[in-house]
Amino acid sequence: MKSVIRAGVLALLCAGVAQAATVRLTYEGMSDWESGVAVTGTGSFQTKPSVNVGAIGLSDLISFDFTFSFSYKGKVDTFQYDLSSLSCPPPFMGSECGFSAVLSATGVDALELATDTVDARFNWDQRLIVFGLDDAITANPDMPPLSSGTMTATLVPDDGNTVPEPAGLALAGLALGAGMLASRRRAR
Fold it and tell me: Does the pTM of the predicted model rise above 0.85?
């Protein structure tokens, strides 16, 4: 019976634990069109559970959301982007959409992204472009940047509520079952 318990504990220790990486995003910039007007935005992205460190691309994400507001001459537009905003139709005037980042166990080492253009109600349509964490803009494809700033990308700490991967649980169950079967055969 002790060997069955040992096999079960070993199987559970070997069962992989999948944890998606969640990254909080904050944009801080200034309007290039109206002196002294701040442009700020917040959002996040989350990777698939099997991807939490290393170089990642658009196919590694399960969610992306980002919102910022742009004000010009007292009229404010709010722009909201989601995962579909990172994929665009064929390039317009050389603009392309996409996403890439490098995640480490302690943070975000690199981030580049470009969203599709979102319609404005009062001012100009805009997209969010991050060339690097220290170089981000909001822009309209027909104009110079509407704001320039920086993007902060913070890895959200694991809350400890990880869920084992189904394959890992299946492997643990198989090992435990095999151990129990072997124990029964020895007892006969």
Answer: no
